[in-house]
Amino acid sequence: MCSQKQKTLIEFTIQDLIRYVIEDRQCSIQDAMELVYNSELFEKLLDVETGLYLESPRYVYDILKDELTAGHLVQNEV
Questions:
Q1: What pTM was computed for the model?
Q2: 64 CA to centre of own chain
Q3: Residues in the chain with pLDDT values less than 70
Q4: Packing angle between helix 4-25 and helix 57-70, nearest 10 degrees?
Q5: Spatial separation of the C-alpha atoms in residues 48 and 60, rounded to whole Å
Q6: Is 48:2 a contact under the CB 8 Å cutoff?
Q7: 3-class state of residue 76 by DSSP
Q8: What is the pLDDT of residue 74?
Q9: DSSP string, 13-67
Q10: pLDDT at position 76, please?
Q11: pLDDT score for 2
Q12: Burial level of 11, CB count in 10 A (0-12/13-18/19+)?
């Protein structure tokens, strides 16, 4: 169960991830949302036990980029 503060931090990170995808891939918001929401990282971000929501959005985005390149989540600490 997440606190409201945790939910808010997660939402802000998701918004930043979508913005970064749009900027890097020059794609639509819909395509960016699909990439983020269908990623393995998204599930890990929603799990407050991982602590990913406490990391900087840019750090989390670097993990997402690695996942998109490799086709699967590659960070061991996640």
A1: 0.91
A2: 6
A3: 75-78
A4: 60
A5: 14
A6: yes
A7: coil
A8: 82
A9: HHHHHHHHHHHHHT--HHHHHHHHHTSHHHHHHH-GGG-GGGS-HHHHHHHHHHH
A10: 59
A11: 86
A12: exposed
Which tokens belong to 23? 């900027």
Two tokens, residue 54: 């406490």
Task: Report how far residue 25's alpha carbon sits from residue 43's, in angstroms, rounded to the nearest whole number.
Answer: 22
Look-up of token digits 């600490």: 77
Cβ count within 10 A of residue 1: 4
The string over 43-72, giving b where at least 16 C-beta atoms fall within 10 Å of a residue's C-beta and e elsewhere, is ebbeebeeebbebebeebbebbbebbeeee
Q: Give me the pLDDT at residue 1, please.
A: 74
Amino acid at 74: V
Tell me which residue of 27, 35, 36 sits closest to 57, measured CA to CA: 36
Coil/strand/helix, residue 69: helix
